[in-house]
Amino acid sequence: MKRNILITGASTGVGFESAILFARNNYKVYASMRNLNKGLELKKKIAAQSLDIELIELDVTKPESIRKAIQHIIDNDSKIDLLLNNAGAGFAKTTEQASEEEIRWVSDVNYHGVVFCTQAVLPFMRQQKSGQIINITSVGGLVGQPFNELYCAAKFAVEGYTEALASYVTDAFGIKLTCVEPGGIATEFMKSAVEKTTVKGQLASGEYLPVFERYFAGNQKRASESKEQVYQTGEEVANIVFDVAQNPTPPLRLRTSKWAEDFCKLKTNSDPDGTLLVKQITDSFL
């Protein structure tokens, strides 16, 4: 039987490219998205290349939607081999400007969704004594950045959650975990992030405006540089995800570019892939 994979946020970007790549490499792919109407481009790829991809509805902010999707996979295949927690959304706005609704939304999409999807697959992976969970985080999960504090907090949470979970489920149940940490990705993610920085049509207001203008100008400058320096394509990151999935002993964390590696090096130099830290945690507590 083929290995299977559930991918969240598969309508665009890394999720879209990962669905195609895994299917081309003999995986049964369950490509999930909140709105199946956004799957038209993926359907075209499936038809053109005869890919073994099934589109399923899954809203990472709704636990019942997650459980329903997981049960569908189990009913079809009686197992789940790999979960790619890819769904997420950028957000750049000051804490003062963000509404209570926005603050909850950032955490729901970028952190709680990862936890609820992981919670849903763990019983099946634990019973089969194997499985892999790959979480798409960000350099923002290691290094806080201006005007991104709410987004970074959610990604920091995913990093801590993954690190803690890996300290006991890998050895006990054979479930491998990895955080894949891109820098910038030149996909719809970036467009969405920019759209969500506006407050009544303005990028910022009041005393924050001069600081935000410097921040936004820096982002634009980086965007104009070569992609090798900062921004990667969804396909480039998907290739790294696939390599992690084929690795029998995958790292706990992995930056996806030289720029990302350099950006985080003050925090990662002593233990670049997180392996030493997980061993220390396991030795200390177990």
Description:
With 286 residues, this protein is of the alpha/beta class. It has a single domain, classed as Rossmann fold (3-Layer(aba) Sandwich). The chain has helices at residues 13-24, 40-49, 63-77, 100-128, 149-173, 188-195, 209-224, 234-246, 258-268, 275-285; strands spanning 4-7, 28-33, 53-57, 82-85, 131-136, 175-181, 184-185, 231-232, 253-255. The protein has a 7-stranded parallel sheet with strand order 3-2-1-4-5-6-9, sandwiched between helices. A two-stranded parallel sheet has the order 7-8. It starts with a strand and ends with a helix.
Give the gist of this structure:
The protein is of the alpha/beta class.
What keyword list fits this structure?
globular; single chain; Rossmann fold; 14% strand; alpha/beta; two-stranded parallel sheet; 286 residues
Protein topology:
Blueprint: E1 4-7, H1 13-24, E2 28-33, H2 40-49, E3 53-57, H3 63-77, E4 82-85, H4 100-128, E5 131-136, H5 149-173, E6 175-181, E7 184-185, H6 188-195, H7 209-224, E8 231-232, H8 234-246, E9 253-255, H9 258-268, H10 275-285
Parallel strand pairs: 1-2, 1-4, 2-3, 4-5, 5-6, 6-9, 7-8
Helix pairs in contact: 1-8, 3-4, 4-5, 5-10
Overall strand count: 9
Q: What is the structural class?
A: alpha/beta
CATH homologous superfamily title: NAD(P)-binding Rossmann-like Domain
Q: Give the class-level CATH name.
A: Alpha Beta
> pLDDT under 50 segments (min length 5)?
none
